[in-house]
């Protein structure tokens, strides 16, 4: 359980970081969507390790294969299996983890829950699992783009104490992708890269915040009461490794306003659409998208893997000092950007299908 | 869809604020749990309107009936129907809402999604829907208490800019319930009540933060990878009306630390249990509970219902000035406390059942 | 668990035969469907006890209330709660069952599974639970009729050894409802009523077969591979009390034919539609409806409640002779007819919504 | 949708007959179960084509790989990916199917539903999809054997009009596997093999019935009301290709008995267990297993693929005469035997986990 996400556009991921393969089965995809390996690979390349000096040097090409669900370049409506074989596996780097729990990793809890764990590189708890999510998210993005021109852009918004200035209405993919940090604020980016690099050199790590905006989202997505759109978005991104917080619209800062200040007044725009003058709601009201940009933020803790000695215990409970070798991401944020986009896309696509089912206009047609 | 929550301990809520009744069906409850109406009513009384000067004056007793699933004071293992009839319905207060969209309410999005809405008092989007959640949560709490002595305590942690000091390891139910704010910090409480009352008098509202700690949670709850415990907790509380943000453990503040500072070092305590010296993880590592207190925070926006004039549009799109009459909660926080507890209890109980299913020790037994 | 049926048009039933109430929550219903109590009551009246001399004399009006999900005579798209209070409860008739297991009832297995049971009248295992199904089925039928003119007719096809002749292409609701057996073959009906009545007089019971045809079913319903339409239909009717077998199309008899004889050849009819000359497939090929009438049959065992002495054991395991008093249905078939229709309608309606979600034509539109 | 089966022991199959691969992801498997490829391969070898003169001569080794979820020969509790690459693909045999609908196949309905299909060898509707089921069923069987000594045996019970005599209490795996038909009645087997072979030679096919008995099933499995054990078994086997009917216990024949004759009287056996003297209930009462052998039967139609000319239409609707080439199974029954066992095992294993979750005795412990 727990390895399937979504109701109608439903993905099941599998794979440990050092087992045979990782990947995903995508079920419920509509038929006749043009799709090929390049659609998927483009997103995986944004996620893969070894991209720059501020990500882990672990080199994996993460080359994907599509083994079912396609025919003549189109989806069949049947399950799509996307597979990435594991390659750069250095089990020896992890030998010490066979018997020792790394602080703030999943070693101890997996051992406690299952009585067994693949201690090579984090096993199922490795960020490598997100390959399946990003691959599936590429399909969800493509669907949303076709049906509504929806654009989903995540970006690094904060690194430690450095805050970027981002205009969620106008930020572009190019502004985000033109630097290794994936941050659309050039000034802050330069400082942040230096900051990350200096912590990398001392074998330490930093955290920060990834923001995300989804524009041109159809009105009406979200399913009261438990499957409110913000609730499903929260679950989606809080299931990513290292995430510690979630905000929609005004978030925690909005709690310092009064109702008078916080409410988004309605008006009718020139095209006759009902809009809100402000967007503290973050594009969602009553759990349902209102057509304004959906704006959310995700807190990511500093990477737990650091190359400094730390006090911990062995599986047998003995106190030891652990100094991991291996390779590490000094900051997960740049690689978290495509993960956040993928999770947001999966939620929106699933809710689009749900909306067609219940409210698709077929009843009265 | 969207009205069912949980996989194994599964609740389905129903009801509009001004329809015939609201309530819940609880499915999957283990058999032979002693249960009576008083267990449920005690929690509903903490949630009901009209408790104090800082909650809405709407008077509803919210008296519940249990119409199935019990026999001789014990659960049968069959669905438990808990029903609360609606009583203090003043549809006339809402007449204007029949054609006008209240800012930052769900009126406009429900109308857009469904092409129809019960405009009397918020309909399904009313906080009245949470009666079913709180009722079901009372059962979940009882189960957790019996199997593990788990104690779940929510409390008001911030009101607008007023921050309470709370010791999550020691805070007690009594400290929380001995004031109408449900805040364990007496000094801040006095100020906050005055603050809320002053905004109430001007027909305005304020928001804030509800914190929650779950102590004596069994180790091993949570299901990688999508159903990580923090992901399910995030979804649970972000499905509550007016919630805008979620944090687990160190949350957003934790992103300003380095990995060295943030990691929770392990040690073995005197009873031989593996513990962490700090708890920035918030009781969850790798999506699985580690036995430390689970600590989370939920941001609640200021109540959207205010009694001041606001610019908005009618359903037909005409600009109007709306001055709601009706009654309003100047601050949702005190009534949100039992709601947050209920949602946390539902998630933990569901995961407890899931854990028994997959890892209950029966395989090797 | 186990009390919810369907993925998108999803029902949850609740209630014991002698608890406070029985009923159903219907979630996922499309909005703006005209609906009132009479729509539901008409179907409940076909299911209720006390209709004729060949059903149980237990008198229950089974008057339903709709307590949520409706507004101004239309569905809101929110959960619909339909409730029927229990009335004619004679717990004293069942006193003996408190400690004794009735043969071929659910007493012993409920006790073994749950360690507790409501022994008054069968509790949750009572056919009274089907009230919720029939009520929900009335809504599903209404939807299918509106979107595709779908007509679902069940009928008694066999009583013990008496076989009716039924033309599935032409049989009408009137032919079925004009007699207390609900069998469209008048000759067989007269004999069968006498047969049932004679077994009733000796306190015995008989079984038989209910057939069902669904005409004007949209092409394309059914979801390979596990949710094939016939698989979901089989589950649906095999979840009815007393059912022991299921057939689709040619069923068991079809296994005596060769492939040459069994295959349904295709042709194009005058309207240009692709049809099959024969319908051994029963309207479903590859798990997907092909537009031909869906034809199925359900075997119902003779009612387990008989008023003759039978050897059995007490809960403590002592051998006793049990002679039930109470009231009994000498033959479940006439009342099973609306139950079968309801279950078939629920499956088709759910698959209609699923089909809109994945293949609704919105992708390319 | 539709490609996932089970709630807690949950499988997702993928793959077309002539795409890259077929297989399954198994989620929810308990950890620390010893498992290797040989456990899976043994069952796949019983299912694979080319076993004997009465199965299709298509030669596929169906060699499986396990690419995740295992570590040091034990399950991790994480998803298990089992993959079988497609090899003996002769797309040219199917060229004609690109534009022509084979009678009683899924060609026409897939085309109608999805607007696209992989016409090479049946695509997703091919029996090749069942590889994933059989592989997953091997794991379920292993679990059931360990926890309860449960033994699940399917066998050919009827071929066309030839009926086998089978003693469900005593039949053994050896008796079933010692002949190519997988029928424990030697006399009938000899005749049936000749019968099948003669139909094979004329390019025709035959159907029949597969029986199945599950012995030593734990008491208490099955979840009222919709997930009754017989309902889930019915769905499971009716989702197999070519199945047309299902019976549990007395089945259709039981409908000719009176209640007096049909009821299974209880007694206490020498070990003090409550048993039934007869087993017309088929091991299930009230939807819950009672510890008696679970006995069911599945009707399989004659294979739709025959090598004789048949009238049909092209995708464009033109009448044509089709004479398939390709290879065909003259009778699906011998290969259906492991499929039925797998589906029964999956249902029982899933219900075992569900039962542990709700009634596992942890509440009062």
In short:
Chain A has 365 residues and is an alpha+beta fold. Chain A has eight helices and 18 strands. Chain A has helices spanning 37-47, 107-114, 130-148, 173-177, 186-201, 229-238, 259-262, 333-359; strands at residues 4-5, 10-14, 21-27, 64-68, 70-71, 74-75, 80-85, 151-159, 162-163, 208-215, 243-248, 266-268, 274-276, 284-285, 288-289, 294-300, 310-313, 319-322.
* Share of residues in strands of chain A: 15-25%
N- and C-termini, Cα separation of chain A: 39 Å
CATH domain class of chain A:
Alpha Beta
Number of domains of chain A: 1
Count of beta strands of chain A? 18
Radius of gyration of chain A from the CA trace?
21 Å
Number of helices of chain A: 8
Can you put this structure into words, describing what you see?
Chain A has helices at residues 37-47, 107-114, 130-148, 173-177, 186-201, 229-238, 259-262, 333-359, and strands spanning 4-5, 10-14, 21-27, 64-68, 70-71, 74-75, 80-85, 151-159, 162-163, 208-215, 243-248, 266-268, 274-276, 284-285, 288-289, 294-300, 310-313, 319-322. By secondary structure, chain A is an alpha+beta fold. The model of chain A has no long low-confidence stretch (mean pLDDT 94). In chain A, the strands form six sheets. The first copy, chain A, has a five-stranded antiparallel β-sheet with strand order 1-2-3-7-4, with helices on one face. In chain A, helix 3 (130-148) packs across helix 8. In chain A, a hairpin with a 4-residue loop joins strand 1 (4-5) and strand 2. Chain A is globular and about 65 Å long. Chain A is built from eight helices and 18 strands. Chain A has a single domain (4-359), classed as 4-Layer Sandwich (Chorismate synthase, AroC fold), CATH 3.60.150.
């Amino acid at each position: 359980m727990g390895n399937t996400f979504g109701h109608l556009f439903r993905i099941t991921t599998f794979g440990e970081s050092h087992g045979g393969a990782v990947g995903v089965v995508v079920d419920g995809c509509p038929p006749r969507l043009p799709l090929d390996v390049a659609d998927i690979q483009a997103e995986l390349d944004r996620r893969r390790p070894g991209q720059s000096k501020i990500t882990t040097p672990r080199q994996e090409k993460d080359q994907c294969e599509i083994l079912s669900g396609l025919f003549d370049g189109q989806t069949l409506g049947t399950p799509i299996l996307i597979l990435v074989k594991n390659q750069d596996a250095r089990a020896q780097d992890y030998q010490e983890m066979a018997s020792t729990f790394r602080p703030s990793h999943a070693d101890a809890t997996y051992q406690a829950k299952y009585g067994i764990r693949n201690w090579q590189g984090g096993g199922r708890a490795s960020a490598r699992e997100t390959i399946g999510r990003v691959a599936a998210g590429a399909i969800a993005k493509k669907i949303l783009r076709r049906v509504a021109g929806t654009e989903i852009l995540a970006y690094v918004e904060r690194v430690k104490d450095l805050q970027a200035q981002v205009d969620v209405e106008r930020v572009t993919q190019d502004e985000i992708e033109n630097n290794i940090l994936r941050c659309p604020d050039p000034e802050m980016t330069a400082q942040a890269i230096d900051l990350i690099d200096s912590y990398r050199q001392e074998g330490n790590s930093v955290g920060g915040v990834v923001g995300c905006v989804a524009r041109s989202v159809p009105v009406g997505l979200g399913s009261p009461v438990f499957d409110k759109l913000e609730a499903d978005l929260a679950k989606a991104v809080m299931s990513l490794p290292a995430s510690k917080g979630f905000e929609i619209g005004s978030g925690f800062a909005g709690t310092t306003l009064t109702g008078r200040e916080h409410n988004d007044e309605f008006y009718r725009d020139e095209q006759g659409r009902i809009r809100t003058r402000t967007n503290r709601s973050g594009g969602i009201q009553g759990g349902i998208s209102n057509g304004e940009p959906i704006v959310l933020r995700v807190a990511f803790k500093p990477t737990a893997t650091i190359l400094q000695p730390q006090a911990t215990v062995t599986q047998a409970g003995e106190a030891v000092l652990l100094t991991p070798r291996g390779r590490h991401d000094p900051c997960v944020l740049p690689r978290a950007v495509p993960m956040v986009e993928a999770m947001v896309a999966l939620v929106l696509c699933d809710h689009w299908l749900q909306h067609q089912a219940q409210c698709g206009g077929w009843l009265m047609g």
